[in-house]
Amino acid sequence: MSLAPAPLSLGPEDWRREALKSRSLVVGLCITLAVAALALASFFWTPYDVTRLVVADRMQPPSPAHWFGTDHFGRDIFSMIMVGARNSIAVALVAVGIGAGLGVPLGCLAAAKGGALDEAVMRLSDLVFAFPALLSAIMITAIFGPGAVNAIIAIGIFNVPVFARVARAGALSLWPREFVLAARTAGKGVVRITVEHILPNIANLLLVQATIQFALGILAEAGLSYLGLGAQPPMPSWGRMLFDAQTRMATAPHMAIFPGMAIVLTVLGLNLLGDGLSDLLDPKHRRAR
Amino acid sequence: MTLLAVENLSVAIRDRILLDGVGLAVGAGETVALVGESGSGKSLTALAVMRLLPGGAQASGRIRLDGHDLLALSEERMCRVRGRMVGMVFQEPMTALNPVKTIGEQVAEGIRFHLGVGRAEAEERAGKMLDRVGLPAKTFPLSRYPHELSGGQRQRVVTAIACACEPKLLIADEPTTALDVVLQAQILDLLRDLVTEQRMGLLLISHDLAVVADMADRIAVMREGQVVEDGFAVPTLTRPRHAYTRQLAEASMNLPIRRQVVPGGGPPLLEVRNLVRAYRGRRRSLFSRAEPVHAVDDVSFAITPGQSVALVGRSGCGKSTLARLVLALDRPQAGEARLAGESLHDKSQSALRPLRRNIQVVFQDPYGSFDPRLRVEKLVAEPLHLLDEPISTARRRELVAQALAEVGLPADGMDRYIHEFSGGQRQRLAIARAVILRPKLLVADEPVSALDVSVRGQVLELFSHLNEKLGMAMLFITHDLQVARAVADEVLVMHEGRIVERGPVNAVLDDPQTEPARALVAAAPDLAKAIARREALQPTAGAASVG
């Protein structure tokens, strides 16, 4: 008996072709990779040392020597943005990690066990949702002291219920499916079925959610450090740079424009990437395009 | 007079040709059936007539409806055609209705839009239409929501929506496939009456030749996007000219015949005693207590080793709930089920493992019963998890290859993904997964109802073969009596949670004693009988010219 060719099978080449057709995916991926590359490069090389103050060069407009100009201490803004990217990405990445690391298992467990446990997890996440995330993050950092670590924890906590809900919703739709029933008749337990069947099938949902939370994390970090509650000087951060620029907008607008652009571009890139990914992973969108 | 004329219709998406030169004609008051297996282009033809093709599809050719060239109409004019001139009944009544609107609103919607009448008049007409389809306002007020209706009632609402504006053409795309046989007969009767009353043309799409033989004046057989044969119904089915039509007719009429009959008696393999499974019902008022709904109500039966038992009944009668109880996927409120003397319901999941080795399952949906992200090797090997000691990869591959060979699939299939297989092949894979551990009992829940007729026979043959060769007992759940005859020694008829009749398959089905069993037997479509009935009605039809 010959095996019929599948009409809608997607091999690796098909994925690549589909991915390249999605403009938002390609643009989003390029921006995200560029920001990540700058952040990585800053570990080995920046045009200038960001901790060295050269008062003679303060508040210079963009020039061949300083592409994005200098700040009120004479530091090179391009170098600061590179190092700041590192900080923003690290905070957002760990915050997403905390959210997914706690939220996904909780959501999967709630879907698998149902009943009182499900109820408890969901009401608890309602409770967290009831507080405005950024305000609460400000409160947490205000109580426990400013700094990158506390910012990470504060942002991360509010990611937990987001991931728990997405994971639960996805898992709930899979548990009554026949392939899961078949796994249960094969004697597999809740954890094993979740790892083998549920997680791979909700991975796309989680991936898309992660890019969105990542963008929100970068915004939140910028917000916190703008208020002086994030990374502390001399460590440059985008939010802090905006704060410093605020009073000098009239004399040195470039000090606000470039860090602002960095935030906008990174968030835009991540949002485009998330959009593109959800289109790519959703067969209905794929056909409609 | 020709109402709908489809000439040389071709549809392509990118460079894939889906319909290739389809020609079709439906006259006023005439029923034309479009038959063929899944993927042959039946539904696509209907969607092309409605101009509802999926994005990216290119249609060429001509579709004329009552003098209008449909492919040339603007989208705005087309909106006036849909619903007003052509009504459509879809397959799945669960998803064809808007869950947040009442049935009255949904029927009245089209009337208001197309006929431009006021709300009150539209609702009055909607009421009349619902009354006509068998949902009188007394018991089914317009203010009901779809979820308050059963599947058959919803399909009546869908039919009422389609016929509300008295369209000239009604397209019914597998209108009864999601319903059980009794409801199927009712909906088909309704369609037939409406067509006669309103002198509509009916384009009936179906994969079931028995349904078609009862309903259609003419038949068009489709295969791979082409109409391979068309003509008057009876001659086309009794003296097909095209080999494919012959093959379809034969597959519909000849199911494998049960060879071995295992006598009951002896120590039972599976013993079910007074099993009860109830779900919490809806409260009628704030203070009254919710009445429990008994899905399985005091059911007892036994299966001896090697015996094949069919469980038949209408949809919603509790067949699948019973299967879940027997598979220890659910716990009963009362009663017990024992496999080889050991209870299935008083054990922890780990203590159940030795029992699970001896009871495996094949589900209905060949598309939903496999994880799309794993290779066949892993999928078929899943029950090996029940072995006490882990086995080596080489041994696992050996066992999978053996199981694949048993169901007639090549061993190299194990490195592929599930989407690379057709429906029939997937069902073979499901069987391979179920038999890899050589269980003593196989539970099959409607395993062939989602398959095309030509594949159905082969899969039933395979079940019989495995039953004989491996000595596996089977609990075979089906709503199709022919299927029950083909695979089972004994039959249990289930109705509203209870088993109302039982006995040897042929005895029960030839001479049913209880009302539910009689209703099932009477409503079951049978191609041979349908043709005989038609020939008796119009003895000259066979001699009419075929065009």
Shape of chain A: elongated
Q: What is the N-to-C order of secondary-structure elements of chain A (H for helix, E for strand)?
A: HHHHHHHHHHH
Largest sheet of chain B at a glance?
A: 6 strands, mixed
Q: Strand order within the widest sheet of chain B? A: 6-7-8-3-9-10
Report the structural category of chain B: alpha/beta
Give average pLDDT of chain A, whole number. 85
- Chains forming the largest contact: A-B, 26 and 40 residues
Q: Tell me the total number of β-strands of chain B.
A: 20
SSE-based structural type of chain A: mainly alpha
Percent of residues in helices of chain B: 25-40%
Largest sheet report of chain A: none
Q: State the helical fraction of chain A.
A: over 70%
The helix count of chain B comes to 19
Gyration radius of chain A (Cα, Å) is 23 Å
The oligomeric state is heterodimer
Can you count the helices of chain A?
11
Number of strands of chain A: 0
Share of β-strand residues of chain B: 15-25%
Whole-Å distance between the termini of chain B?
15 Å
Question: What is the alpha-carbon Rg of chain B in Å?
Answer: 25 Å
Low-confidence stretches of chain B: 541-547
Summarize the structure.
The complex is a heterodimer of chains A (289) and B (547). Chain A has helices spanning 12-21, 23-41, 77-113, 115-129, 133-144, 148-174, 178-185, 190-226, 238-246, 254-281, 283-288.
Task: Characterize the structure shown.
The complex is a heterodimer of chains A (289) and B (547). Chain A has helices at residues 12-21, 23-41, 77-113, 115-129, 133-144, 148-174, 178-185, 190-226, 238-246, 254-281, 283-288. Chain A is an all-alpha fold. In chain A, helix 8 packs parallel to helix 9 (238-246) and helix 8 (190-226) runs antiparallel to helix 10 (254-281). The longest helix of chain A is centred in the N-terminal third of the chain and has 37 residues, at 77-113. Chain A is elongated and about 75 Å long. Chain A starts with 11 loop residues before the first helix and ends with a helix. Mean pLDDT of chain A is 85; it is low at 1-9 and 284-289. Helices cover 35% and strands 24% of the residues of chain B. In chain B, helix 3 crosses helix 4 (119-132) and helix 5 (151-163) packs parallel to helix 6. The longest helix of chain B is centred in the middle third of the chain and has 18 residues, at 181-198. The chains are: A mainly alpha (289), B alpha/beta (547). At the A-B interface, helix 7 and helix 8 of A face strand 16 and helix 14 of B.
